[in-house]
Amino acid sequence: MKFWKLAVVAAALSASALAGAQEIKARFGTSLPDSHPQTLGARKFAELVEAKTKGHIKITVYSAGQLGSDMQMQAALQGGTQEFTAPSTATLAGLVKEFGVIGLPFSFASEQEADAVLDGPFGKKLLAQLPARGLVGLAFWENGFRNVTNSKRPIVRAEDIAGLKVRTMQNNLYIDMFGGLGANAVPMAVTELFTALESRAVDAQENPYTVVYAQKFYDVQKYLSTTGHAYDALTLLVSRKFWDRLSAPDQKAVQDAALEATAYERQTSRELNARLRGELTRLGMQINDVSPQERARMREKLQPVIAKYTAGAGEEAAKEFFAAIEQARKH
Ligand code: PAF
Questions:
Q1: Signal sequence span per UniProt (predicted)?
Q2: Ligand 1 centre from 93 Cα, in Å?
Q3: Which of 4, 38, 71, 269 would be 142's cystine partner, CB 3.0–4.6 Å?
Q4: Which residue, by CA, sits nearest to atom 5 of ligand 1?
């Protein structure tokens, strides 16, 4: 009798231990190849999560759009069929309009300013809006300052953009931004972009050095002009359906890993940006600096677009966004 009692207790204990130790598998999809900080950050994050959970949570990274475009992956997270991704805040703006302020042209003056705004109360308030949309935002990563590349001519003056067929992200602000500079904006997923540039379906695109390099745009684009027209952040997202199933210690481990991976991703992005200009020149691109006066002229031309999207993101969010930038500038 005693023996049977003991056997039942032992069986129950080992069953619960098994449940606790059960391996949790998750997928992290990125839209860019392995050499871009988005995917390097994803791999570092996966490594950290596995270490912090002692192998309990295993994340496999699928890079370069293997799981779909940014918009498709974002929707898959909402539906609970994929666990992690890190799209541009421009992609998220389709879901939560307040995210749109990040891409407002010529807002940030430096990466450090962006860090202060995104890591501060303003960024936290943005992330707090995601759970209601089936997503949990763990941190902001860096894509960086965006520059125009094209196959036709250097952009020296604001007017040089006019008439170019420019691929933009699938985001109304970016479509109107390039429309406002006289270009024909052609929205499409980044995963289709190389072919579109190669076949000359579009003349131009706009992205930071890191994307130009990782996507090998130097093979199909001659000119890179440092327009620096917008700063772009990525949001490290997890599916809420997945998140809610994690235990509190697992959630903490994932959140801690996100913080560490954020420092790594931003540092990698900045180190790469600093050396890729030389590398892209070596690979045959002609790089020209756009003067501060021409940037100011571009900003002037974009005033109606800035006004439209400042209002579109909501008065309160826009006010808080600009106040947070002012605050960051004082420090
Ligand atoms: O151009 C884009 O689509 C974006 O910069 C990025 C980060 C490559 C994809 O989200």
A1: 1-21
A2: 13
A3: 269
A4: 207
**Any residues with CB less than 8 A from the CB of 319 and at least 6 apart, and which?**
none
What span, in angstroms and rounded, lies between the C-alpha atoms of 91 and 232?
11
The C-alpha atoms of residue 158 and residue 301 are separated, in whole angstroms, by 9
Q: CA torsion angle for 159, 160, 163, 167 (degrees, to 10)?
A: -110
Tokens found for residue 128: 């707090």
Predicted ipTM > 0.90: yes
Q: Which of 150, 282, 154 is nearest to 217 (CA)?
A: 150
Query: What is the CB neighbour count within 10 angstroms for residue 40?
Result: 23
Q: Tokens 């990563």, residue?
A: 141
DSSP state letter for 157: S
Q: For residue 215, give the ligand 1 atom closest to its CA.
A: 8
Residue 80: C-alpha distances to residues 72, 240, 243, 248, 318 (Å):
12, 7, 10, 19, 31
CB of 31 shorter than 6 A to ligand 1: yes
Per-residue pLDDT of the chain (331 residues; tens, 9 = 90+): 444 454 444 444 433 333 456 899 999 999 999 999 999 999 999 999 999 999 999 999 999 999 999 999 999 999 999 999 999 999 999 999 999 999 999 999 999 999 999 999 999 999 999 999 999 999 999 999 999 999 999 999 999 999 999 999 999 999 999 999 999 999 999 999 999 999 999 999 999 999 999 999 999 999 999 999 999 999 999 999 999 999 999 999 999 999 999 999 999 999 999 999 999 999 999 999 999 999 999 999 999 999 999 999 999 999 999 999 999 999 8
What pTM was estimated for this model as a whole?
A: 0.93
Reading the block at residue 261, the tokens are 């991976």
Q: Give distance in angstroms: CA of 190 to centre of ligand 1.
A: 6
Q: 14-330 in CATH: which number?
A: 3.40.190.170
Partners of 58 in the beta sheet?
A: 25
